[in-house]
Structure to design on (335 residues):
């Protein structure tokens, strides 16, 4: 189910990423002030945008989970936040590298955009421990959804607050692309598309892998039941990942098992 | 030859900033590579589990057919 269209998605991701890299290094003009260093812009900013949008998407998927009580939405929300965290780590590292090259420091504490991103990242870094701390899977998914919605609402608020309040030290991107030469704007948009595709592909791979494992577990249980051998415990200890039964993941929307 | 090729590329002025740009893009590729490696590990685990399950089921099926054959010869 989750693997449908994965091949086409993977091929388009690789193609668009290759195109983005070609545009960045062989076509986009050098920026007047920063020169070659500005090429980091095409990887750092799309990473940050996709990461923040992923956090918000996690919140929206969590709303759907609370509305329907369908565990598949919790799984999607979990995967979106998990991937956004990975993209967030990459954003922080590439940002630090850019800061070092541009300002001579790995981190600047009085720069609101950097610090606000770090705050959002640290907020979401508590998502996995929160899930892990709750043993009961029903409560775990419910509390995690509430967290995802609250934190997801905080992301755009934080973004708006920072933009409204500040000093124009950090390069502005959204709303300022019109100031860029068209070659740079186009390259940036292609890079953003590539990063979005990468995010979606990785999420889809993650969901497919989890789905396949759930199906395999279900198959093993069926085989055990048929042969009359005792089925091993489905899970050893608690886990931060949502526990979704294979039937819940394959059932049509609205027909999966509901949490209470 | 590669240095000659690099010298010909107009958009790659690999001066001071080059190491930072290379570092930033390496982070992205490392991210993708690590993810692919994790997926490969998961896939091999699934393949192993599926193989075990298949082996077990084949053995059970063979046992069942053997028992059925014995039963029919007894009758």
């Amino acid at each position: 189910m989750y693997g449908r269209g994965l091949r086409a998605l993977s091929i388009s991701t690789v193609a668009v990423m290759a195109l983005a890299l070609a545009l960045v290094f062989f076509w986009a003009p050098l920026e007047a002030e920063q020169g070659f260093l500005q090429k980091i812009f095409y990887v750092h900013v799309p990473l940050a945008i996709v990461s923040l949008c992923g956090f918000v998407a996690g919140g929206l998927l969590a709303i759907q989970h609370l509305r329907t009580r369908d565990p598949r939405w919790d799984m999607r929300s979990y995967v979106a936040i998990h991937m956004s965290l990975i993209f967030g780590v990459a954003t922080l590292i590439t940002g630090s590298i850019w800061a070092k090259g541009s300002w001579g420091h790995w981190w600047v504490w009085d720069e609101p955009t950097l610090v606000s991103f770090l705050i959002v990242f640290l907020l979401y870094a508590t998502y996995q421990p929160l899930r892990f701390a709750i043993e009961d899977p029903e409560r775990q998914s419910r509390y995690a959804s509430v967290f995802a919605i609250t934190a997801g609402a905080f992301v755009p608020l934080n973004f708006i607050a920072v933009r409204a309040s500040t000093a124009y030290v950090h390069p502005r991107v959204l709303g300022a692309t019109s100031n860029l030469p068209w070659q740079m704007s186009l390259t940036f948009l292609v890079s953003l598309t590539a990063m979005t595709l990468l995010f979606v592909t990785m999420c889809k791979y993650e969901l497919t892998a989890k789905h396949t494992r759930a199906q395999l577990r279900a198959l093993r249980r069926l085989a055990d039941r048929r042969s009359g051998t005792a089925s091993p415990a489905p899970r050893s200890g608690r886990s931060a990942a949502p526990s979704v039964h294979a039937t819940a993941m394959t059932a049509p929307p609205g027909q999966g098992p509901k949490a209470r | 030859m590669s240095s000659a090729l690099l010298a010909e590329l107009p958009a790659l002025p690999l001066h001071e900033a080059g190491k930072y740009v290379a570092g930033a893009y390496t982070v992205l590729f490392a991210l993708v590579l690590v993810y692919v490696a994790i997926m490969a590990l998961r896939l091999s685990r699934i393949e192993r589990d599926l193989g075990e399950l298949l082996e077990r089921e084949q053995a059970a099926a063979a046992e069942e057919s053997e028992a059925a054959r014995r039963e029919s010869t007894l009758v």
Notes: The radius of gyration of chain B is 29 Å. The mean pLDDT of chain B is 81. Chain B has two helices and no strands. Chain B touches chain A through 28 residues (CB under 8 Å).
